[in-house]
Amino acid sequence: MNSQIESGLELVMRLTQRPNLENINPILIPKGPYPNEFVEIVGAPGTGKTTVLMDFIVRTLLPLNLLGKNCGTVLIDTDHKFDMLRLITMLECELKKLNVAKSCIHSAIMKCLKNLTVLNCYDNEQLQMSFYNLEQILIENSDIGLIAVDCIPAYYWQYRNLSDNHISVYGYTKQMLQCLEQCVRNNNIVVAYTRNAEADVKEIKLGETIHRILLKKEAGSFNAFVNDKLVPYTLGKTISWL
Amino acid sequence: MSRLNPQMHPLLNSPVLEALLAKNIYTVLNFIETEIKHIVAITNLQYKEVLGIRKHLINKYAAVTRDGVSYYNEIITKSALFSTGIKRLDSILQGGFLTGNIYEICGLPASGKTQLNLTLVRNVAQNSILNVYYIDTKNDFSGRKLKAVLDASKTDEEHVKQIMSQILVKKVDTVHDLINTLYEIKNLLYTKTIKLRLIIIDSLPPLFYSISDFSKRYGLITTMVNVMHVLAKEFHTAIVVTNVLTTSYENTSTEDISGKIGLGKYWYNVPNTRLTIKKFENSSECSIIIAKSNRLLEGAQCNVKITDAGII
After folding, report:
1. What interface predicted TM-score (ipTM) does this complex get?
2. Which of A8, B16, B63, B83 is deepest in the core (most CB within 10 A)?
3. Facing residue for B226 by CB, picked from A118, A129, A158
4. pTM, rounded to two decimals
């Protein structure tokens, strides 16, 4: 039998009830994401990775009665493509679509933003330290359901130069993800991250399941591939899944 | 990478540090990555003490935790939108250049990139009391050219002096110079010595040509980009850089510009908004297109005219 000693802290983490993100985007992920699973958004530049990630954030932040999950999100931003004002626009569009009265929109948006935590990172060391800091953040807020990272391999070249270690982008990305996985292990949380790469890039395997969303731009139209299922989408003020 | 040192925590005295160094634990990250019980064994500190050091280091070196509402309020109160002074360009930019963003203007040589910068500098300095930082890498910033732009727009002598004094010009010759300058600006902003919301770098790629080792070049670009992001996001500045496009005779398709942009693949994805400027043959008109943006409509286009008084 494989027995393991766990500390009181780990026990608390494992038993904390976190919000459930199942069916957050049934078109893309028909089953899940279940607690502790990962969602990978991968694609070439200009395919809308950040927008897809923001779409996940919007769905997590919106209240339950408005088709959201009403839970907290931690955003780790390394690429600085995330635009707060754009997030507001996306929230506003969703609320308008659901016929929320104009007078309530502002307060509804503020309520959503209260559930968002933003961590802006500027180098590799800070990014990894922020991963280690997640433990504390998660203990303090039991209503956080999603950790969003945009994007994982941002500091590859800096790392490679400082460490004199000829690691590949793939190796570095994997190393970072393993570090992140280690930090949030058994926390019952969903991690969504973007990865800037050509679509035929090698898959990364972790201990937990990864839902892979592949974004491609083909002949001017956008397509997302999940397990060979094709979902066309359009990018505008918000993202629309067709 | 931050090296461990005694100033970081009172318990990190020299015997403790020596013991850690002997086990190849040099940096803050090494310390955090090592299991606590190992550190206890190496240093003879108590578990609780190591936990305390760990917590302190994580707090100090991790990213600042901000909640959405205060982050939004910070952006709303500190953001600024700079009109370029070119009406048609402002309209495709939804008002002008917004702080917190890195903009790139790229075009073939002599397509009006510098002229566009001068127009922008003039307009911001003319309509505000803010400083503008102009980083010149080609050694060709000319006060005369700027004065000509000002004179042609009928600014009176006193005002011209005032405007010229708002513009800080720095010539840089190497990449390291540039990175140091960016850190210097960060320091000046931190101590509130200057009121700066707009930084222009004209032009980026020449500095990097001299570095032939491509891995080293990419490393330096990343270091530079990291400082730029700090300046843009934490100090709420807009950064405008110019870059060159290269034409190749074999590949004449104008659709795909990714291979033709200076500085390569990593940089390609960095700017929040990329504008390409193209001069029409035998005319003083050029067109400006939004080639890529995380916020604006891609493909939006306008035609502008280059005159002695800048671009209109």
Report:
1. 0.87
2. B16
3. A158
4. 0.90
